[in-house]
Design a protein that fits this description.
Strand content: 25-35%
Distance between the termini: 21 Å
Largest sheet: 6 strands, mixed
CATH topology: Rossmann fold
Number of helices: 4
Number of strands: 6
CATH class: Alpha Beta
Mean pLDDT: 86
CATH architecture: 3-Layer(aba) Sandwich
Helix content: 10-25%
Radius of gyration: 15 Å
Length: about 150
Amino acid sequence: MEHLAAGLAATLRPGNAVLLAGPLGAGKSTFARALLRAACGDASLDVPSPTYTLVQTYDAPGLVLHHYDLWRLDGPDSLAELGWDESRAGVVLVEWPDRLGALAPADALRITLEPEGDARRLTIEDGRKPSFFEKQKPSAAPHLRQPGAL
């Protein structure tokens, strides 16, 4: 999972949104932590879960990332006071994106994590243009394929 997060971190640009969905314990925070450490270029970066602070901000080379955990929100009404609109100028990384409602960006990178025994299944839908998959050279990431690709 860390390799995938690092690969995705390298493709992030200001204005991107990464939405992490899945049940409690599926690995959303683990994935977010790996992505943030890779984006910031610091494998030992302290990345606390923003479950109680709701948002944590990180300065990375060339961009600012805002990590939201919306578990405790009922819906999008509180996002304005959390600086959602301002955060969209950087990269937003959102756990529990169902709480965004209509504010969920249509062009987001959506990652759904589902536990399967001792493993996890990740489903990726990339609304960005060009997508992560279009940017990858087949030799650089042979284990990553677009849905439906053989």
